[in-house]
Design brief:
elongated, about 200 residues, single chain, mainly alpha
Length: about 200
């Protein structure tokens, strides 16, 4: 090597590179999460059968789930903890009002909405398999649909504080109904928006 020659250095805007890498990673994880949340025929047919669960034959209609009450509390607690940490708090602070102002926060909220949707899907299956929790099937299904819609709106148009407060009211309602059924839900905050 020649001691007098130096390589020309190229200035790289690391903030743009880091943002791009983070965005690609978040979108990759989100696409994997969405692919794993595909609907199956057994879930759609079981969610359309509340009369069977009301008559006490939910176990025959959806199969047996071992430790259904424990799993229900776990999945609902994770869903509600992720909602409050990654969606409700940023929305109340105004960080989700427009997805381009805080793109990383919006990406985390969209990922969290997908995670919450998935955890509610698991909690719904547990509720359908237990006679005591079967009265929570309809409220959880409605809440799950709202989170599915929220995931899309966070990515496209943002989510307002009133949207988050409306979801918080629905979450509180489900928590109250679960407590009255003898299964109080303790929120568990995941360390990342994807669980």
């Amino acid at each position: 090597m020649l001691a007098g020659l130096q390589k020309p250095q190229i200035a790289v805007p690391w903030a743009a590179v880091r943002y791009g890498i983070t965005l690609v990673a978040v979108l990759g994880v989100l696409s994997l999460a969405v692919a794993g949340c595909g609907s199956s025929t057994s879930a759609s047919s079981s969610s359309a059968a509340p009369p069977a669960s009301a008559t006490g034959t939910a176990k025959a209609a959806t199969g047996t789930v071992k430790l259904a009450k424990t799993k229900f509390v776990l999945h609902a607690g994770l869903a509600f903890g992720a909602f409050h940490r990654w969606i409700w708090k940023p929305a109340r602070a105004g960080e989700l009002a427009h997805p381009l102002r805080h793109p990383l926060t919006a990406a985390k909220a969209a990922l969290a909405a997908t995670f919450v949707y998935h955890e509610l899907k698991l909690a719904l299956a547990d509720a359908q398999a237990d006679r005591t929790l079967s009265k929570l099937v309809a409220p959880i299904t409605a809440l799950q649909n709202r989170f599915h819609a929220l995931s899309g709106s966070v990515k496209s148009s943002g989510a307002s504080a009133s949207d988050a407060n409306g979801l918080d009211g629905a979450v509180s309602s489900v928590k109250g109904q679960a407590a009255s059924a003898g299964q109080p839900i303790t929120e568990q905050t995941p360390s990342s928006p994807s669980g």
